[in-house]
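To whoever is covering the structure queue this week,

Two jobs came back overnight. Logging them here so there's a record in the thread.

Job A:
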Amino acid sequence: MSGQQDLRNRRRQRLRFQLRQKSIGRPRLSVFRSGKHIYAQIIDDKTARTLAAASSLDAKLREDLRTGADRNAATAVGKLVAERAIAAGVTEVVFDRGAYIYHGRVKALAEAAREGGLSF
């Protein structure tokens, strides 16, 4: 692995450790962003199951979005994952930003998920 990947993995593992300490049994809202799309999923780590998921590739969102790699797409994905999580009975989560800085698309997704009814 390159040095940058090593740093990213260390940052991701450090954040996951902190989340495990603070989660107190709550599922986590995990975010992944690529150059073209953004993905979010609610994961229950105790049972290793995905409770709800959404991405900019969803057919429902794809026709409304110009691209999957901007803040508008992240906002739409945040609202959709919050809607699906509430339908699955989840209202409180822990936000897992991965190795990404809480800025831009990640921040837009988090704020939209809060507006959609999730609390973290």
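Job B:
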Amino acid sequence: MIYFFYGSDVEKVRTKAFEWVAKARAKEPNLAYARLTREELSAATLEDAALSGGLFVSRLLVLIDDPLPATPAVSDEGEDEEKDVSSSVFEDALDALATSDNAILILAPKLASAKAKKIAAKAKVEYRFDISTVRTAARGFNGNLANALETRSREKLWLEINRALIAGDAPEMLHGLLHWKARDLMAKGSRAWQPRESRRLSLALIELLQNARRGNADLSLSLERFALSI
């Protein structure tokens, strides 16, 4: 079954999605959890998300983070980086994800209207958060963290990561925000990051998460080391 988080308010969409994950995991501690980034999507990983279970794990909670690009990203050679199989494979898997016994959370802010409607039609529950004319101050989306990465301020980024961890933010949530920002830098460009550098930044964050999942490194410590390496 699909739980769909989307809308033009990127900050609120991401915050609410990770809050939902935290509540679900607290409510059902034995629920196995996995987060898939766009680059990790394939027919095999999506089939696992829809069908996996077993003797010791009856159900999975899978967060699919930003599976479809809002705008195509262009490589240094001028080729469309997003013209790969991930988008079409994801859309082909929607029916299987919708009928799965697993909880499939799709996090896709700023998605094109046609794409959003297609996913919403398959969702058990949809959560839409659009930017309103009145914004209230609340803890959630860490703008300081995103800005520190954008401006390439390693000391500030390290400090913001530690502040967030002390405040109780999950390392996976911080990684998700950093990886979203890396992809945003790839799409929009930045004074501090050249196109090749922002691409390598995104790949480095993917590798960091994969190493943590394999048990080769603690994600919190890896994020701190990453901050000091930019």
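Note for Job B: The domain at 1-131 is CATH 3.40.50.300 (Rossmann fold).

Please reply-all if you pick these up so we don't duplicate work.
Q.
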